[in-house]
Write a structure and sequence with these properties.
The strands form 4 sheets. An 11-stranded mixed sheet has the order 15-14-13-12-7-6-4-5-2-1-17, with helices on both faces. Strands 3-16 form a two-stranded antiparallel sheet. Strands 8-9 form a two-stranded antiparallel ribbon. It is α/β, with parallel strands linked by helices and 535 residues long. It folds into 2 domains: 2-120, no CATH class; 161-307 and 372-531, Rossmann fold. Helices cover 41% and strands 14% of the residues. Helix 2 (8-31) packs antiparallel against helix 4 (58-80). The chain contains 19 helices and 17 strands.
């Protein structure tokens, strides 16, 4: 507010314009059967005002437009404030959170669909809504899906395999071959440690794991533990070393020279650090690398950056930096706030005001299956990436006892970002093209952080953009990139085919069983770590 009042003329102009539009809206409502209808419209894709009453009923049409005008006014005020870039981002975010929360669709008295449902059900919807609210209060979170419809290992994470190694932080799963011949080199996946790995193995028809197995890869999966107090002392380096151990075990089981690796989101950031450690040691353990929705340069992290500052991180370090747990529920709440209308208020209206039950949706079940993190690991991660952005600076960071330089990671890389990603903005992911050494391919998929990645080849949905004419500016790259229809999965499969082979040949006979004499199967996939629930 003090920044706004430094330019009173600008503030007065914005206020005057807002009051004039509100007066125009009021006059329009009094003089017509509707409320003007065109003074201001919702943003494209805004589903909060889908009911016909918001358009046809003069009262609700007025309420909707008055709210949209007020929201626009607040947004204009935020944009006019002369602040540093980070403060401006935080102000924009706070204003949007407040505006979204105060939407008339979120209140029973001003939502026509809620009132109609209450009348049509003789008040039963209100009773159901109160019951839903009480249940979610005990659960500690808003229900986004019918959680009773899913079971990990029952109808999710079904690709056959076995756990062949485990330590305190992870289990390593080897999946059974689905083809007579398999690539000589193993393919090791590193999922995010802030979520469960089965986002890559949801159902058979949208499982990237199953797809990779069917393409003739010997697939290994890191399944991170949902840590408890006993694991609260582990640090970032412990996660990096677990990845390196997964490489060694998969290499030994397959008796091959090197591995192909994949990292998703935070898993990709950890994988980048692990590859930098290998490069510093002169170890060529990895043949190729695939990055899904991964940031290595955190200079423009998007909306998540509004939660990060020195004061907040220092408080976390004092509380859990030397030992303790960051509850998964806190991370889940943060990510939900990034898309509050879709992931919070939509369910407040449906579950509590309308008395409805959320539909069964596998992606949202996974989204709610949060994971705890060790305090030291979390604090190291956030300080060295989001706050100080050291990972991308040569020699600024030490991992596993060596100075890391991502520029020395010269492995061929297939980098995938998604255009509507609210967690890893695609322009931030694009920075990896300049940051990493070696040959690179960059693919920009349609949709968001999850739907843009889990886009099965069989579905033929969405599209992607591709070009090997890299420029410093991501928007310049996009302007000349070619759009292709359908999934990018087959393109990735064609690319990685060249890296399947080892010294003894491109393929080998599929093994009759998983594991080896040294690393025998411990339990069937998906293993027990992934089934552990966060407190």
């Amino acid at each position: 507010m003090s920044a706004l009042f430094q330019d009173p003329a600008r503030f007065a102009a914005l206020q005057s314009g807002y009051l004039m539009k509100q007066a125009q809206l009021w006059t329009s409502m009094l003089g017509q059967s509707g409320a003007g209808g065109s003074l201001v419209a919702p943003e494209p894709g805004d589903r909060r005002f889908a009911a016909a009453e918001w358009r046809d009923n003069p009262y609700y049409a007025y309420v909707k437009q008055s709210y949209l005008l007020a929201s626009r006014f607040l947004s204009d005020l935020a944009e006019s404030a002369e602040l540093d870039a980070k403060s401006k981002d935080r102000l924009r975010f706070a204003v949007k959170q407040w505006s979204d929360a105060m939407c008339p669709a979120n209140f029973a008295a001003t939502n026509p669909a809620v009132l109609k449902q209450a009348l049509d059900s003789s008040g039963e919807s209100i009773t159901r809504g109160i019951a839903n609210l009480i249940a979610d209060t005990h659960r500690g979170r808003i229900s986004q899906t019918d959680e009773s419809a899913f079971e990990v290992g029952g109808n999710l994470a079904l690709t056959p395999g076995d756990v062949v190694y485990e330590n305190e932080l992870m289990q390593l799963i080897q999946y059974r071959a689905a083809t007579p011949l398999v690539g000589a080199r193993p393919f090791v996946m590193v999922p995010p440690c802030i979520n469960k790995f089965y986002i890559l193995d949801l159902r058979p028809d949208n499982s990237f794991v199953r797809y990779a197995v069917e393409q003739g890869h010997t697939v290994f999966m890191v399944s991170w533990r949902n840590v408890g107090p006993a694991q609260g002392h582990y640090d970032w380096d412990d996660y990096v070393e677990s990845i390196l151990k997964a490489f060694e075990v998969s290499k030994e089981i397959t008796q091959c020279d090197r591995v192909n690796a994949l990292g998703f989101c935070v898993g990709g950031t950890l994988l980048g650090a692990a590859l930098a450690v290998l490069a510093a040691k002169g170890d060529d353990l990895v043949e190729s690398v695939t990055y899904f929705a991964t940031m290595l340069d955190f200079s423009a992290p998007g909306q998540i950056g509004v939660f990060i500052d020195e004061k907040g991180i220092a408080a976390r370090e004092a509380a859990i930096g030397k030992g303790g747990i960051l509850p998964g529920a806190e991370l889940a709440s943060t990510f939900n706030m990034l898309r509050a209308n879709d992931l919070i208020w939509n369910y407040v209206v449906n579950n509590y005001l309308m008395g409805g039950a959320p539909a069964a949706f596998d992606l949202l079940y996974w989204n709610a299956d949060s994971t705890n993190l060790p305090g030291p690991m979390y604090c190291s991660y956030v300080r060295n990436t989001y706050l100080d952005n050291k990972l991308c600076v040569p020699g600024a960071l030490q991992n596993c006892g060596v100075s890391v330089d991502l520029g020395k990671v010269d492995r061929p890389a297939f980098i995938v970002a998604t255009r509507e990603d609210h967690i890893v903005p695609w322009r931030a992911a694009y920075r990896s093209v300049q940051l990493l050494g070696g040959d690179k391919r960059f693919v920009l998929g349609a949709s968001g952080h999850i739907a843009g990645i889990i886009n099965p080849a069989s579905g033929g949905k969405r599209s992607y953009w591709i070009s090997e004419n890299f420029s410093q500016d991501p928007d310049t790259w996009l302007a000349q990139a070619k759009e292709e229809r359908g999934s990018w999965w087959p393109l990735w499969s064609q690319w990685i085919e060249q890296f399947k082979g080892g010294k003894s040949g491109k393929t080998r006979e599929a093994p009759a069983q998983t594991g080896s004499a040294k690393y025998p199967p411990l339990e069937p996939a998906p293993g027990r770590y992934v089934k552990q629930k966060a407190n």
